[in-house]
Amino acid sequence: MYVSCRKTATSAAQHDAAISGREANTEANPTSGWTQTSYTYNIQTPWNLSQSSRYSYSGGEHRFWIYPDDECQYEGCSTGPRSELRMNNNYTSGRHQFEGDVYIVSGSKGTDIMQVFGGSTHATAIMLKIHSASGGTIKRYDNETLMTSAYNKWIHVNVQHDADNGRIYVYINNTLKGNYADRGNATHYFKCGVYNISGSRSETRWKNVKYWKNGPVGQ
């Protein structure tokens, strides 16, 4: 599929003290100064089911859903159930940004809704994960809280990755929520949808998914 979409080192300690793990109060424009870049993508769904059993696309909206007993994307793999868009934007350096609007259906929990794949100490640089507490809580993995009351509404998400300096910046509804170490250099790419599950059914809907390159981070 094809979609047309619209090194200066900084002290990690200073970043963490100033921003990481706490919410900034001013609204930002995360894509200001960035270049929108076309991309291609693949859809990954359980290998033993038709793609339409766990994914649909209509009116510019991607819909992903999984159940606990689902398989992963290819026969013999040992990871969890998934229905995801895998952006073909492999990179190892530079500045890259994911943007999109997500609707998280209530009851989804224990589920990664967006990820930057690739790391030297872990498989991923970051995952945004939905938990069931407080009307749906988005966290960085099981750690820092990025948003509560997240179920059943459209949420604007921007994730900037400065691969040269090993930092990731997460914005929710144009507010910088924190920046984090990216867990080491590797081949990275963006994914969104649903991956892993601890409830009976998880579903997200994504629209306006865009890819940006080479702009300022953490503004």
TrEMBL record:
A family per Pfam: Alginate_lyase2
**Where are its TM segments located?**
none
The record's region (Disordered) falls at: 16-35
What InterPro entries does this protein's entry cite?
Alginate_lyase_2, ConA-like_dom_sf
Q: Which domain of life is it from?
A: Bacteria
Q: State any GO BP term from the record.
A: carbohydrate metabolic process
Which GO terms fall under molecular function for this chain's record? hydrolase activity, hydrolyzing O-glycosyl compounds
Boundaries of every Alginate lyase domain copy: 40-209
Q: Where is the composition biased (Polar residues)?
A: 26-35
Q: Which PANTHER family match?
A: BINDING PROTEIN, PUTATIVE, EXPRESSED-RELATED, OS12G0171100 PROTEIN
Protein name, as recorded: Alginate lyase 2 domain-containing protein
